[in-house]
Write a structure and sequence with these properties.
The complex is a heterodimer of chains A (300) and B (308). In chain A, a hairpin with a 6-residue loop joins strand 1 and strand 2. In chain A, 70% of the residues lie in helices and 1% in strands. A two-stranded antiparallel ribbon of chain A has the order 1-2. The longest helix of chain A is centred in the C-terminal third of the chain and has 32 residues. With 300 residues, chain A is an all-alpha fold. By secondary structure, chain B is mainly alpha-helical. Chain B has 14 helices and no strands. The radius of gyration of chain B is 25 Å and the shape is globular. Chains A and B meet through helix 1, helix 3, helix 4, helix 5 and helix 7 of A and helix 3, helix 5, helix 6, helix 7 and helix 8 of B.
Chain lengths: 300, 308
């Protein structure tokens, strides 16, 4: 009933926008990363022709990231921080999502709203809240002194890895809980009943039925929070500001906002993006599959 | 009778309960209840304390004195109302979010319609490209946009225009995902019925399909406002400083210096604004979809529609 050109025509402005301001900018990053630097002005000189690309900066970045390089510690630290934060997020988030989906009963609506609420509170506001609490004379130190856990105030914000990991968990966990909840909520209870009827203990029913069926939620949610964590630079900056806790994102930030060498920053961005491509493709593929299988609002 | 004799009286002592939870934490969800509510308190109470200190009468953000609205408008120098940097940040945040909603929502709705119905060469690639902004780490997008505006489209410069263009770029995909979900759940029967009754394609589109999409359009407008107001990375990378710094940028730079409770106050204002808009979006969603067959409660539908 509709003319054939109509849908393509409706999609055109959006596609054009994303090509001009999303795809082309990536090419600009490549052009700068594989370009040269003006020796006098120290400004990047992009090279647009891939045949003339200069791989020197990329090699420089890879050398710095390799064992023995000056960024090796930063690279491993980033991976360790993200891995530990992800593990903690899953450890806390899974029981919460599980309870909300399975056992919350008449509290389900309220709990769901309270779990979604942090998603609508600015990330910076939530970080600010913890910076206040973790001050030398903040509530946390005062509580720990009062209960004699500490004998003198602890400097939480002076470059401690545990504070950064704690902040990452606090910042990203709401984004994990929701996909976890969605996948657990979608599990048909009759599968569990069947498992119990066939003699499975509650634990083995969980292990053999619930856990495998919630795999898509676990993986999807994990990827969803891992990607921004790898690019995070503001969280370590807010709660520590010490080079001892700096991550890859902080190096990129430094080269654009602090240092004179955007070219190295661009080359590092390329390395980070390539490193994360596998995760990104996995997530896109899983969204694609969910849309194909269910095709409803609930699937998204 | 032995079974009855063996059944121990139900005790409510703490140790008995604790043993019960430890023995079978998954069977009876009491441990889960504690974890869940502890998590909820942990995620929300710090924010409430931050709100509390925005009303502190002294300059401290850690020691409570007494209630005052000094940091909102009372203080002649450092309050949100009187400090030009904070006031400008508030204006800039609303400016970006407003422009973002006005431009990203129409483009996204059209793109969702197009992608949902367009079959043929290019549609697969377009679907693929559309999903990328959702998963690209913001720092990568920030670097890309900064470089495009400083190396290629140099007429844009950093500043408000660049920030608006950046915000729209990451918002479009959210609109598409929300609207497309709604499109799938509506199906095509209403438009086909309209066509059978003699509606032209234009009428079917604007008088039948568009009204049915209204809840998703309202919801995506609320989401776009929220993600734009919350955005830090893109705003910061494309800011030229001064008046183009948004509220999240102000909070960020203030926490790294020696902040006053006025930072808590501006964060509170932003939080309340966002929550009001999202609540209105939720109420509108419920109003427009009332009477439709639900897959879950309205809150669940809304929640899952809003998060990918």
């Amino acid at each position: 009933m509709y003319p054939r050109w109509l849908w393509r025509g409706l999609a055109l402005p959006g596609i054009a926008w994303l090509i001009v301001l999303f795809v082309v900018p990536f090419y600009a990053v490549l052009g700068v990363a594989f370009g040269t630097v003006d020796p006098i002005l120290l400004q990047p000189v992009p090279i647009w022709n891939p045949l003339e690309w200069n791989v020197g900066w990329l090699q420089e970045v890879l050398n710095r990231l390799a064992p023995g390089g000056i960024w090796f510690d930063v690279g491993t630290r980033t991976i360790v921080y993200v891995a530990l934060s992800l593990a903690l997020c899953l450890l806390i988030g899974y029981p919460v999502a599980y309870y909300t989906a399975r056992h919350a009963g008449r509290w389900k609506g309220l709990i769901l709203i309270l779990i979604i609420l942090p998603l609508w509170i600015s990330y910076m506001m939530r970080m600010l809240a913890w910076v206040n609490l973790l001050q030398a004379d903040g509530y946390i130190n005062r509580f720990l002194l009062f209960t004699h856990v500490l004998s003198q105030p602890r400097d939480w914000l002076g470059g401690s890895s545990s504070t950064v990991i704690f902040a990452l968990v606090y910042g990203y966990i709401p984004y994990l809980i929701l996909p976890l909840f969605a996948s657990l909520d979608r599990i048909d209870r009759s599968h569990l009943e069947a498992a119990r009827d066939l003699g499975a203990s509650p634990f083995s029913a969980f292990r053999t039925v619930t856990l495998p069926l919630s795999k898509t939620g676990i993986l999807g949610g994990a990827v969803l929070i891992t990607l921004p964590m790898f690019g995070d630079y503001y969280t370590p900056n807010i709660v520590s500001m010490s080079p001892k806790t700096s991550m890859i994102g902080n190096q990129i930030d430094l080269y654009f906002h602090g240092g004179p060498q955007p070219t190295i920053g661009a080359a590092l961005t390329v390395v980070l993006a390539v490193f994360l491509t596998i995760l990104m493709l996995y997530y896109i593929w899983s969204i694609h599959r969910a849309q194909r299988d269910v095709g409803t609002v609930g699937a998204l | 009778m032995t079974a009855v004799a063996e059944r121990r009286p139900r005790t409510f002592s703490t140790s008995a309960r604790l043993r019960g939870w430890l023995r079978n934490p998954w069977g009876k969800p009491r441990l889960l209840v504690i974890i869940t509510w502890a998590y909820i308190l942990w995620s929300i109470v710090p924010v409430l304390i931050a709100v509390q200190f925005s009303f502190n009468a002294t300059r401290s953000r850690t020691i409570w004195d007494s209630f005052s609205t000094r940091w909102y408008w009372g203080d002649p120098v450092d309050s949100v109302w009187h400090d030009p940097t904070l006031r400008h940040a508030l204006v800039q945040t609303f400016k970006l979010a407003g422009a973002d909603v006005l431009i990203a929502v129409p483009i996204g709705v059209l793109l969702a319609l197009g992608l949902a119905r367009w079959r043929g060469r290019g549609s697969g690639t377009s679907n693929f490209i559309m999903l990328f902004p959702l998963v690209t780490p913001e720092i990568v997008m920030g670097v890309a946009l900064l470089l495009i505006f400083t190396e290629v489209f140099t007429f844009v410069h950093t500043g408000t225009l660049a920030q608006i263009l950046g915000h729209i770029t990451f918002s479009i995909s959210f609109v598409v995902v929300i609207v497309r979900g709604r499109l799938f759940s509506i199906g095509r029967q209403y438009e086909e019925a309209a066509a059978d009754l003699g509606a032209t394609p234009f009428v079917a589109l604007t008088r039948v399909l568009l009204p049915l999409l209204t809840p998703a359009i309202v919801a995506s407008a609320a989401v776009v406002f929220a993600i734009s107001a919350d955005d830090f990375v893109i705003s910061q990378w494309l800011s030229k400083g001064g008046e183009t710094d948004t509220v999240p940028i102000r909070i960020y730079s203030a926490t790294r210096a020696a902040p006053l409770p006025s930072v808590n106050a501006i964060a509170t204002i932003m939080m309340v604004s966002t929550l009001i808009i999202v609540t209105l979006g939720f109420l509108a969603w419920r109003l427009f979809t009332s009477g439709e067959q639900k897959t879950g409660t309205a809150a669940e539908d809304f929640g899952t529609a809003f998060r990918l």
